[in-house]
Write a structure and sequence with these properties.
It is built from eight helices and six strands, in the order E-H-H-H-E-H-E-H-E-H-H-E-H-E. It has a six-stranded parallel sheet. It is globular, with a radius of gyration of 17 Å.
């Protein structure tokens, strides 16, 4: 049984919105079942402040806006939400902080610079090194836009992590992606060999 004093990490899905259509995502794999609730709602900051407080979770250290079925940066209050959770977790431990998982193909470089100035960590889902390789899985994503955004984020002081899902169509690009992540100033690259179905992903673990 969970006790509030034992909770150090929260994964939060902020919205039911996403701007792209990855075939391995639950949104696509179970589309007929989940379609009625998609692109309908955002979790309001005012509600988050009621549900999650510094006193209510005294040992909370890490907030992850995980983006498993949504795109966190599509939320109109995302900057204010980040500020609220930073006010709770900052200083609680050396590794305390806020993380966002994103496809990166939202907003503008100006927005991403604002996020970068908050010095949070962001995992960028980039499974290619150009438009052709990226959009084979990240359907609807724009590589040039993603690159402009991560450059603005990194330049402003954000901690960027490149997340690369290995597929049969892109595994030959992995070493180039690793080098690009270094050249572009990412903190590191995270390579995933997934178990998902219907996505064309390589079925092995690293």
């Amino acid at each position: 049984m969970w006790h509030k004093d034992s909770i150090e990490w929260l994964d939060i899905e902020l919205t039911s919105y996403c701007n792209i259509k990855c075939p391995g995502c639950l949104r696509q794999e179970s589309h007929n079942k989940v379609e009625p609730i998609l692109n309908k709602s955002y979790t309001k900051l005012s509600d988050l402040k009621k549900w999650i407080t510094a006193d209510g979770l005294p040992n909370l250290k890490y907030i992850n806006f995980c983006g498993s079925v949504d795109e966190p940066t599509s939320h109109p209050e995302i900057l204010e939400i980040v500020d609220y959770f930073k006010s709770i977790v900052d200083g609680r431990s050396d590794n305390a902080g806020v993380n966002i998982a994103t496809n990166g193909s939202t907003r503008t470089p100006e927005f991403w610079a604002k996020l970068g100035k908050r010095r949070i960590s962001v995992f960028w889902g980039v499974d290619g090194i150009d438009q052709e390789s990226l959009e084979k899985y990240r359907v609807g994503s724009n590589f040039n836009k993603v690159r402009d955004n991560w450059r603005a984020f990194i330049k402003a002081g954000g901690h960027a992590h490149w997340q690369f899902i290995v597929f049969e169509h892109n595994e030959h690009l992995l070493e180039q992606a690793k080098q690009m992540s270094i050249d572009e100033g990412f903190d590191r690259i995270r390579v995933i060999y997934s178990h998902r179905n219907k996505s064309g992903e390589v079925k092995k673990w690293n």
